[in-house]
Design brief:
It is a single chain. The protein has 19 helices and no strands. Helix 2 packs across helix 3, helix 5 runs parallel beside helix 7 and helix 15 packs antiparallel against helix 17.
Length: 356
């Protein structure tokens, strides 16, 4: 049996060698060879399936009417019972994308789904293939990746939602981990790749928990060369403020006096405006004034949180005032100053009760 498999492999390799050298690239012999490679995907012998996987791309471009059958054969390899065959299938996806760039988007989408594999060694191969796709076409590949972390359709059932949530977590881990170097290389200032990453991740913030938000902000977005207040920082800050507003409502409804889900987001906002200086402090100060300084809100919070809020607001006002000329925000600060002054009697009362 072993000898017959070896002979079959030898015969297939000879056919491939002759087909590669055939002068008529669209001739019958090469067409027949591609059809045979597609058929061999279903061979009972893993070594034959692996051989077919590595050679489909040699003839893929020459016969457009066979492309769909060929690519589906490659996808079948990725679901093979043999791990070795599956990994060859992942590599074959990349080979097809190199052979014909029009397949990059569809192939990248398939690879993203394969991140859900339970085999660590296979996941490494999938991630390598995704990075190679990013190098081939960063705009298309990053769009596919970011699409996976955006809100799901409202009609998705519970099972689909659980699967999408898991995949979103896997994609975020990939983006802020193994893919980070490639992203930073391609997402140059003003590039389409940069816009896709910034807009896609910022739009997804409403879906994410704090650890995920912190990871995409600190481990990816703030590392981009072109990150600045006007093009990216302000929209990012406003996205986090919207998420903070939602969490604040939940904390108050749940009578969480320590603002357990709100405070970490506020600290991240403070980091953006008074640590990294990638966003103007005015919008954050406005949120403090409108949502955190009312008597009704402060009375629901623990003393240390009240003190923390008041001190933060004072610091934000100072930072805003110091930068008002640069930010051209004097008129906005004047309105916020009035709000703060109007609230001062109660704020001072709160602060006095804390320090006593």
């Amino acid at each position: 049996m072993e000898r017959s498999i070896s002979e079959e492999e030898r015969d297939i390799k000879e056919i491939i060698r002759r087909a590669v050298r055939a002068p008529d690239k669209k001739g019958a012999f090469r067409r027949e060879t591609l059809n045979r490679m597609i058929a061999l995907i279903h061979s009972p012998h893993p070594s034959i399936r692996i051989l077919a996987a590595g050679n489909i791309q040699l003839f893929f471009n020459d016969f457009p009417d066979l492309e769909e059958a060929a690519i589906n054969a490659v996808y079948d390899l990725c679901e093979d019972q043999s791990s070795k065959v599956r990994m060859e299938g992942y590599a074959a996806i990349t080979q097809v994308s190199r052979a014909s760039s029009k397949w990059i988007k569809r192939n990248a989408d398939v690879l993203v789904q394969l991140l859900q594999s339970d085999e660590p060694d296979e996941v490494l191969i999938v991630k390598k293939a995704l990075i190679e796709h990013m190098d081939m076409d960063p705009k298309v590949t990053l769009s596919v990746l970011c699409d996976q972390i955006l809100p799901a359709d409202e009609c998705a059932n519970n099972e689909e939602q659980v699967m999408r949530d898991r995949l979103r977590s896997l994609v975020l881990t990939f983006l802020t981990g193994e893919a980070k170097r490639s992203i930073l290389r391609h997402a140059m200032p003003g590039s389409d790749a940069e816009a896709i990453v910034v807009e896609g991740l910022s739009e997804a913030i409403s879906l994410l928990d704090f650890e995920e938000i912190q990871a995409i902000v600190k481990d990816l977005l703030l590392l981009l060369d072109g990150y600045n207040p006007w093009s990216h920082g302000i929209p990012l800050l406003n996205a986090i403020i919207q998420k903070t507003s939602h969490n604040l409502r939940q904390d108050l409804q749940n009578r969480t006096i320590s603002l357990v889900t709100t405070r970490p987001l506020l600290e991240l906002c403070n980091h953006l405006v008074d640590g990294k200086y990638v966003a103007t402090p005015v919008d954050l100060l406005r949120f403090y004034c409108s949502s955190l300084t009312s008597r009704l809100t402060l009375q629901q919070l623990s003393p240390d949180v009240r003190c923390w809020i008041i001190c933060n607001m004072a610091n934000l006002f100072e930072v805003s005032r110091d930068n008002s000329a640069t930010l051209n925000s004097d008129h906005v600060l004047a309105a916020l100053r009035k709000q703060i002054v109007d609230a001062c009697p109660f704020l001072l009362q709160v602060f006095y009760s804390i320090v006593q």
